[in-house]
Design goal:
By secondary structure, the protein is α+β, with helices and mostly antiparallel strands. It contains twelve helices and ten strands. The chain binds 3,4-dihydroxyphenylalanine.
Length: 371
């Protein structure tokens, strides 16, 4: 009986060790472990039959079985490590990226020039400590006009300039916002200026007016800016806007002109022009020259606007500005016509669009005033 068992153990030992070494993957290996060492496994069941043996054989055979058991555990562990290693090697091979391959960007499309402008403007102002706010495209008359000190008879309120929605049951009608300025009010209502002490926000977004020609579209984009604090004055307005324009147009000696103007929500108000000259091929050389182009509106926030949102104008003041993003984009990239911006014409997009990756911009080290 005991010789019989010993033979069987030898046989199992030989067979199991070969099988383990030949197993091709982790599942096969686990099946073998269960087959030999599991609760109902071959080696386990032999160990269970030991109690029927005589004392001297128990020791002898018990030793052999335990040796075999330990050997199998070790071999399985070793094989497991080996198989895991092979698996990683194979994965590495399969997932290898050939970085020398040509990047066919057409396949992925391009970044619309307007998106590029919004990215750049956001980056430039973020560098100056501004954060981004947003507001709804469908606005109430209060936020779009009244809270901004725009009087009832103002032309912007007229039917033919502004898109109005159908009146609701109470007779009030909403408007598609004609500018991003209402977000000034929404922001100031939201914050506690006594706690914040100073806020700096920009608001890029869609705006709407009843206009359509080569330089106007019924839907267009603006970027609003607002800074409110205890000691903000006109010099901050000028400094901020000059720095912004220099970085945006990537020109350290850009000439900038502030021209007195009027907006109901600022006092005093200024329109901002940049210098340029027309080249012989008809394109504009932005930077210096005898001609001026208007690029944005600005001013010190009107005390009435601050009072309207519960801010004491004798304690806090600030400046605001608003610019048309299509115009800034057209000037920077020499795009003559506004209408194709929204035509989704692939030829236009391919020509004026940007490759989203590896673009040189402020984040990646645009050589601007701040870097
Ligand atoms: N909202 C004005 C417009 O659409 C632009 C503007 C001018 C915004 C002066 C401002 C500002 O914040 O201070 O024409």
């Amino acid at each position: 009986m005991s010789d019989d068992i010993k033979d069987k153990i030898e046989l199992i030992a030989e067979e199991s060790i070969t099988k383990i070494s030949k197993s091709k993957n982790l599942t096969e290996l686990e099946d073998l472990r269960i087959f030999y060492l599991g609760k109902k496994g071959l080696v386990t069941s032999f160990l269970k039959t030991m109690k029927n043996l005589e004392q001297s054989e128990k020791i002898n055979i018990g030793k052999k079985l335990n040796l075999l058991k330990n050997k199998l555990i070790n071999n399985i562990e070793e094989k497991k490590l080996h198989l895991n290693d092979a698996l990683i090697q194979q994965k590495l091979l399969e997932e290898k990226i050939d970085i020398t391959l040509e990047n066919d960007h057409e396949q992925y499309g391009t970044l619309h020039p307007l998106s590029k402008t919004i990215d750049e403007i956001s980056a430039i102002f973020a560098n100056m400590g501004f954060y981004i706010e947003e507001g709804p495209d469908i606005e109430t008359d209060y936020y779009n006009f009244t809270a901004l000190n725009i009087p009832l008879e103002h032309p912007a309120r007229q039917e033919h300039d502004t898109f109005y929605l159908q009146p609701n049951s109470e007779g009030t009608r909403k408007v598609l916002r004609t500018h991003t300025s209402p977000v000034q009010i929404r922001t100031l209502e939201k914050i506690d200026i006594d706690q914040e002490k100073e806020i700096r926000v920009i608001v890029p977004g869609r705006t709407y007016r009843s206009d359509h020609d080569a330089t106007h579209s019924p839907m267009f984009h603006q970027c609003e800016g607002l800074v409110i604090g205890e000691n903000i004055d006109m010099s901050h307005l000028k400094g901020t806007l000059i720095e912004f324009l220099k970085v945006y147009f990537n020109s350290n000696n850009l000439s900038v002109r502030f021209r007195p103007s009027f907006f109901p929500f600022t006092e005093p108000s200024a329109e901002v022009d940049i210098g340029y000259k027309k080249l012989s091929d008809g394109t504009l050389d932005i930077g210096q020259g005898d001609s001026w182009l208007e690029v944005l509106g600005s001013g010190m926030v009107h005390p009435k606007v601050l009072e309207g949102v519960g801010i004491d104008p004798s304690k806090y003041q600030g400046f605001a500005f608003g610019m048309g993003l299509e115009r800034l984009t057209m000037l920077k990239y020499n795009i003559p016509d506004l209408r194709p911006f929204y035509d989704s014409d692939l030829r236009w997009l391919k020509h004026y669009g940007f490759l989203g990756i590896n673009e040189i911009n402020l984040h990646s080290g645009l050589n601007g005033v701040f870097s």
